[in-house]
Amino acid sequence: MRQLRGSNVTPVLSPFPAPPLSGGFLPPASAPDYSRVLPRTLEWRERMKGSGMRPFQLNSEMRTMRGVFYPTGWLVLLLPGEQHAREAARKLAAAGIAEDRMMLMTPADFQREIAGSQGDEGILPSAGTEGDTVRKMAELVGHGHHGLFIHAPDQADSERVMQALRGVPVSFGQKYRTLIIEDVVE
Predict the structure, then answer these.
(1) Taking each helix axis from N to C terminus, what angle separates 82-94 and 155-164, rounded to the nearest 10 degrees?
(2) Scanning 6, 122, 140, 185, which has the fewest C-beta atoms within 10 Å of its C-beta?
(3) How many domains does one find in the chain?
(4) Residues 6+ apart with CB under 8 A from 45
(5) Are the C-beta atoms of 86 and 104 separated by less than 8 Å?
(6) What tens digit of pLDDT does each residue of 60-117 get?
(7) Is residue 18 part of a domain?
(8) Range of the structural domain that residue 45 is part of
(9) Of 52, 177, 142, 169, which is closest to residue 102 (Cα–Cα)?
(10) pLDDT one-digit tens code per residue, 53-71
(11) DSSP symbol at 22
């Protein structure tokens, strides 16, 4: 191979084909199989139509680097049942909270996504209460409570949410801020 004039960079032939000039990217044959996830997603979309929220989806931003459940910027509320959670979502939508900022967490979602979080166990010393929080949530979810997650990164957003939910039977509520978990329900 020859060097380009005025450059000390040697061109390298890539073992990968060049991307198409138009159209989309096609994943390699070794891409993960999402066929099991798609039916659940479609089922949830159908179930959630008009409910004012989307299904719960735990992403990496809702965990610490150690894998501990810690959804910074989210209000996490537990309500006595699915109907209560849906009614709360309708009230929030009427108050101007965007539907894409709300997620419904079923007891099955909790068991699958959050129940395994270790929290602060095994770390000494620790001022954290993440493990206690998950245990309290597990107790309520075990009695059929459903979660409503609302993305409210600012204090003004949190206050607007709580104002809209006055009179709603929220059994558990916490706001996750950087380094602080704030109880929002007495």
Answers:
(1) 120
(2) 6
(3) 1
(4) 55
(5) yes
(6) 888 888 888 889 999 999 999 999 999 999 999 999 999 899 999 999 999 888 876 5
(7) no
(8) 37-183
(9) 52
(10) 788 888 888 888 888 888 9
(11) S
∠ CA 162-163-169, rounded to 5° = 60
Strands in 87-126 per DSSP E: 102-105
pLDDT tens per residue, range 139-155:
999 999 999 999 999 99
> What is the rounded distance in angstroms from the CA atom of residue 105 to the CA atom of residue 112?
11
- Cα–Cα distance measured from residue 179 to residue 44, given in angstroms and rounded to the nearest whole number: 33
**Residue 6: inside a domain:** no
Question: 157 phi and psi, to 5 degrees?
Answer: -65, -45
From the number of C-beta atoms within 10 Å of its C-beta (0-12, 13-18, 19+), residue 181 rates as middle
Provide the token pair at 79.
Answer: 């309500």
The tally of CA atoms less than 13 A away on the side-chain side of residue 84 is 19
Q: Is the pLDDT of residue 49 over 80?
A: no
Task: Give the CA distances from residue 109 to residues 35, 73, 127, 138, 143, in Å, rounded to whole numbers and listed in that order.
Answer: 19, 20, 28, 11, 14
H or E element in which residue 109 lies: helix 107-113
* Residue 19 belongs to some domain of the structure: no
